[in-house]
Amino acid sequence: MKLLIADDHPIFRAGLKDILLSSFKKIELIECVNGAQAIEKIRVQKPDVAILDVNMPELNGLEVARYVLKENLKTKIVILTMYRDREMIKKAMEVGAYGYILKDFAADEIIECIEKVKINEKYIGPELQAFYQELGTENLKKKEFKQLLENLSQAELKTLKLVSQNKSTKEIAELLFLSEKTIENYRSKICQKLLLPPRNNSLLLWTSENKELLNSINEF
Predict the structure, then answer these.
(1) What is the arithmetic mean of pLDDT over 114-125?
(2) In total, how many domains does the chain have?
(3) CB atoms < 10 A from the CB of 87, how many?
């Protein structure tokens, strides 16, 4: 197995290296001190797993991970960080990281993390599981929400978008160069497809309650 460690702190890097060498019988280690070196060595030497510090000179760990994802390289990424917040985990997931470990717990968790990553499983440190599960639930809601919107026609989607901007039926009709009656028909069909009650303000209330999800879907 070939592993890459990218961290600009020599003492931390040496400690991690000792743990890996003592835990795996057949291992080749590659060391880097910044993100630019990491990209070059990943590209040329093709390690199985790259352990990347988030904060590094030149390019940070997330930028290196983004490069690996964009170039469709086979190296699996493990992110090391001091940040224990939801947004950082979300960013790591978005760039395809397989593992996310707090540096405070790296000595205890790195071996289990690599064993998981080797077999294409994700590893999130126990102290971060609550954030990870929350993001998983959020992603599931987005998927279900997107599927719901896929039932709408393009004209209905345009109408829904304008409703979410608090436009009246008259204003929507003028913007789309359609009659008010046509817009009323669209609104009625949207309510039926979204299983909303046939009240005058039901669609406006729905868009207000779901504004964050609506904004999160680019196609919308």
Answers:
(1) 85
(2) 2
(3) 10
CATH number at residue 110: 3.40.50.2300
Beta strand pairing call for 49-53 and 28-32: unpaired
> Is the same domain home to 13 and 120?
yes
Domain membership of residue 76 as a residue range: 2-129
Is the domain of 125 the same as that of 144? no
Instruction: Read off the tokens for 19.
Output: 């743990």
pLDDT tens-digit map of 129-184: 655 555 555 554 566 677 777 888 989 989 988 998 889 999 999 999 999 999 99
Whether residue 18 sits in one domain with residue 114: yes
CATH number of the domain within which 145 lies:
1.10.10.10
Residue with tokens 């069909």: 189
**Residue written as token pair 């046939």:** 198
The pLDDT of residue 136 is 54
Q: How would you class 107 by CB atoms within 10 Å of its CB: exposed for 0-12, middle for 13-18, buried for 19 or more?
A: middle
Q: How confident is the model at residue 198 (pLDDT cuts 50, 70, 90)?
A: low
Q: In the prediction, which pLDDT does 143 show?
A: 67
Q: What gap in Å lies between CA 152 and CA 189, rounded to an integer?
A: 9
Q: Which two tokens stand for residue 41?
A: 């060595």
Q: In what order do the strands lie in the sheet with 49-53?
A: 28-32, 2-6, 49-53, 76-81, 99-102, 123-124
pTM for this prediction:
0.60
